[in-house]
Write the structure tokens for this entry.
Amino acid sequence: MSRFFSRNTRELTPYVPGEQPKDKIFIKLNTNENPYPPSPLVMERIRNFALEDLRLYPNSEGATVKQALSKYYGISEDEVFVGNGSDEVLAFIFKAFFDNTDKIGFPDITYSFYPVYSALFNIPYVQVPVRSDFSIDILQYPEDLKGIIFANPNAPTGLLISVETIEKLLQNRPDTLVIVDEAYIDFGGESCVELISKYDNLIVVQTLSKSRALAGQRVGFAIGCKELMDGLVRVKDSFNSYPLDRIAQIAAETAFIDTKYFNETRQKIIKTRQWTREELLNLGLEVTDSKANFLFVKIPGVSGPEALLKLRQEGILVRNFNNPRICDWLRITIGTQEEMKELVEKIKKIIAG
């Protein structure tokens, strides 16, 4: 470790992404990527992009993306902020609204970037235990929090909180900023976007990496009242005033135009998820009622690390976490129907010993 590291850098425990294999062909079910390609219209627009324009800076606000989102959700462009993936948007949120005199809260089992950003920006935080069934008791969070953040559906459990429950939280805590991370909302949940017109303490964050198959383009966005979005712009323009490149802006805009393809592919993923869940339940596995593009699974009698290794030896990558409460569980991305059939067969082999 370099002697030039700051104390904060030395003490950081960075986020660990899922494995991206280079030396072997795997069925890759470990990073929640979409098993289907981006919209054909997106690919056509990218192919027709004038490459000579790469010498020019992109629009600094992502204007065409904001216009597409405004039209899609029926909101003002002033209520939209776009960034280089939802992770960057989340980082801007942490920086814009919290500092070391505040305290924020999030579940003890959720997206593991939240404690990383809290540490990076020196923001005190509390991790509130989820219930024994992994559901989030969001109405019972401590009263002294300036902010509450959670993924909905949650990661890695896939469990969903209703819009009605979230609205009750917003009503009960008007002075608490509530950030709802909807990375997986398109796979079975109802978005909270409609609530931003009623509550100035709500920010909804989404990504194009999952349901719109653009993980390689790194596009995310936040929706909230104009004053909150102005705060994100202030941070962005103090860090990187050109977050979305020209090709990413074209891809993102077009992804919200081709709604037919979007609905077809997400419904295929939902159907495959439901089929896979039933198959695994019939094998005696524990499986949460996920509303995301993944399942959260426990194989009886097999530890999480052992199951991870055995599936890897069979050519299938999944995800296991070292949190003691979930260390025997696997997060399994929903692939194509053929890939999930293969997964079920390999799990049968593991169970048989």
